[in-house]
Amino acid sequence: MMPMTINFHNQTKQNIVETKKLIRTIFKPIKQKKNMQIIFVDNEGIKEINKAYRKKDVPTDVISFPNDDPIDTSLGDIFISLEQAFIQAELYGHTYEREVGFLAVHGYLHLLGYDHHTELEEKEMIALQEQILENANLKRG
C-alpha cells in the first residue's frame, strides 16, 4: 500500500511550501488507501466554519469533516488555522512545526473516528498523536 495522498488548499496569504513538506513527512509512514484534504485558513475563515457548523462564534485551531461515503476515496477534510497555529506555538512554548503537525495529526485521527469526549478516548487519541509526531521527530517542548 502506498503512503496516503494529501491534497492541500491554501486560503491564506502565507507561503505553505515548507508546511506542506512537513505534513507530508509526518504522514509518509502512514499507509492509507484513501486520501484527505487539508485546507489552510486564517482565524476569520475558521471562525466562520466554527460558527456555521459548531455554533461557536470564535476562532479555533482545527476542524475536521469526515467523509461518510464508504465508496468515496477521501477520508474527509481538515481545516487548519495557520494564524492560530502560530499563536498556540508561542503560547505552549514549542515550534510552529510541532503545532501544525499536531493539528494535522489531530484532525486526521478525527477523520478516522477517534474522539476525546471521555478520559479514556482522550488518552488513546493523545497516545496515537504523540506516537505519530515522535516518529517525525516533533516531540513536545
Word description of this protein:
The model has no long low-confidence stretch (mean pLDDT about 95). The chain has one domain (about 5-135): Metalloproteases ("zincins"), catalytic domain (Collagenase (Catalytic Domain)), CATH 3.40.390.30. Helix 1 (about 15-25) links the parallel strand 1 (about 5-10) and strand 2 (about 35-40). Helix 3 (about 80-90) packs across helix 4 (about 95-110). The protein has five helices and four strands. A four-stranded mixed sheet has the order 1-2-4-3. The protein is α/β, with parallel strands linked by helices and about 140 residues long.
Shape annotation: globular
Low-pLDDT parts are none
Secondary structure class reads alpha/beta
**Share of helix among residues?**
40-55%
Our measurement of the CA-to-CA distance between the termini, rounded to an integer number of angstroms, reads: 33 Å
Just give the CATH class. Alpha Beta
Spatial order of the strands forming the largest sheet: 1-2-4-3
- Total discrete domains: 1
Number of strands: 4
Mean pLDDT: 94
User: Sheet with the most strands?
Assistant: 4 strands, mixed
CATH architecture tag? 3-Layer(aba) Sandwich
Taking all Cα atoms into account, the compactness measure Rg is 14 Å
CATH-wise, what's the superfamily?
A: Metalloproteases ("zincins"), catalytic domain
Helix/strand order, N-terminal first = EHEHEEHHH
Counted by DSSP, the helix tally is: 5
Give the percentage of residues in beta strands: 15-25%
CATH fold name = Collagenase (Catalytic Domain)
